[in-house]
Specification:
With 95 residues, the protein is α+β, with helices and mostly antiparallel strands. It is 20% helix and 35% strand. The chain has one domain (3-93): Folate-binding fold (2-Layer Sandwich), CATH 3.30.2270.
Length: 95
């Protein structure tokens, strides 16, 4: 079982979250070609090891998070808010 330490709600079971995909993917502009969108959505690397992923805390605070997870062991190395402004506020509030 994967436990994700949400910066807003604390440690929770992964069943409270929805997987959002690879956080390193840069999506093309809305007016990009079908081929560009196809490649961004479907042509992904199958990373073995640490990967940054987006997760949505659906059954909690509803925030999007960036989770660094080892795809082999499922160990979570870091969790932060996906939006830089929110992440910055959280960091400023920590002692």
């Amino acid at each position: 079982m994967i436990r994700i330490n949400c910066p807003f709600c604390g440690e929770r079971d992964h069943s409270e979250f929805a997987y959002g995909g690879d956080a390193s993917v840069q999506y093309p502009a809305l007016d990009a070609s079908v081929e560009e969108w196809h490649d961004a959505v479907f042509m992904r690397e199958n990373i073995r090891g640490n990967q940054f992923e987006t997760w949505h805390h659906v059954n909690g605070c509803r925030m999007w998070l960036v989770v660094e997870r080892d795809t082999v062991t499922h160990q979570i190395h870091s969790v932060k808010a996906a939006h830089d402004g929110i992440a910055r506020v959280i960091e400023e509030r920590q002692p």
